[in-house]
Amino acid sequence: MSRWIVSNVPSVLLLAALVVVVAAGTVAVLAYVRHRFPGLAQGGHNDVAKVGFSVVGPVYGFMIGFIVVVLWGQVNAADEVARTEGASAVQMARDLRYFEAADSDRIRQSLLEYERAAVAEWSRAASGHSAPEAESALARLYAAYESVQPRDDRQRAVLANSLASLDQLSLSRTERLVMAVTNAGPSWSLWLVIFLLSGLVLGFAVIYGETRARTHYAMVAAVSVLVAVNLFLVTELAHPFLGELGTSSEALREAINYLGPQ
């Protein structure tokens, strides 16, 4: 479900929706509680509420902070893989000047076709599904290098280096596809823990005794926004190749820009 949300809902709308839903829902609960249990406003139970919040608050903060750090690390790892894939293509393009013109043109065209196919499949690959066009383009790129007949030691050395770069490009693409499948964000059990702790934090804010209604509503609204923002961060970072906070195909597009004008 989180994958579908990140894929189809713009980040701004997702954040706004979470803030509105969480804040409005919590404020509605607060209005009911203050009306149904007017004695709570006197704050006779605040010592107990403070103790409960002092336990739940730090646990909630640690849990969300830990999850965000882990997910951000996955996004950085995905970004590194994408950059390596793009950098390998650029390095292969730079080595083309050492080949014969016919070989260079053929490899350049095959490399450009692969990069375009990889960018075209990005949204599909973000879910771990490769496109046949990209697979075929990669196979043709390998075939283009295999047909090269080096004429001297320098060309043989460059060909070996280019094949190593090609293997790195292929490996990075495989890692990218695997990461898109395996790095699927928190499990359902962990989501349950997140929602439970979020509910406890909001619950303690609601039952806290405060005679001034405006102050109480403002406090609950502020805590609700904090919880909504945390839920937004976890949702956005759950899938490293999706959403505005995820890794983009910019590294592959830079390789296309480098190849195009040549």
Runs in which pLDDT lies below 50 for 5 or more consecutive residues are none
Shape: rod-shaped
Radius of gyration, in angstroms, nearest whole number: 27 Å
Gap between N and C termini:
44 Å
Provide the helix percentage.
over 70%
Mean pLDDT: 88
Oligomeric assembly:
single chain
Listing every helix as H and every strand as E from the N terminus to the C terminus, the arrangement reads: HHHHHHHHHH
Strands, total number: 0
Q: Which structural class matches the secondary elements?
A: mainly alpha
Strand content: under 5%
Number of helices: 10
Tags for this entry?
single chain; 262 residues; mainly alpha; 10 helices; rod-shaped
SSE arrangement:
Elements: H1 2-8, H2 11-36, H3 46-95, H4 101-120, H5 122-125, H6 132-146, H7 153-182, H8 188-207, H9 213-237, H10 250-259
Keywords: Membrane, Transmembrane, Transmembrane helix
InterPro entries: DUF4239
Pfam family, one: Bestrophin-like
Give a summary of the structure in a few sentences.
With 262 residues, the protein is an all-alpha fold. The protein has helices at residues 2-8, 11-36, 46-95, 101-120, 122-125, 132-146, 153-182, 188-207, 213-237, 250-259. The mean pLDDT is 88.
Written overview of the protein:
- This is DUF4239 domain-containing protein.
- Keywords: Membrane, Transmembrane, Transmembrane helix.
- With about 260 residues, the chain is mainly alpha-helical.
- It is about 80% helix and about 0% strand.
- Helix 3 (about 45-95) runs antiparallel to helix 7 and helix 4 (about 100-120) packs antiparallel against helix 10.
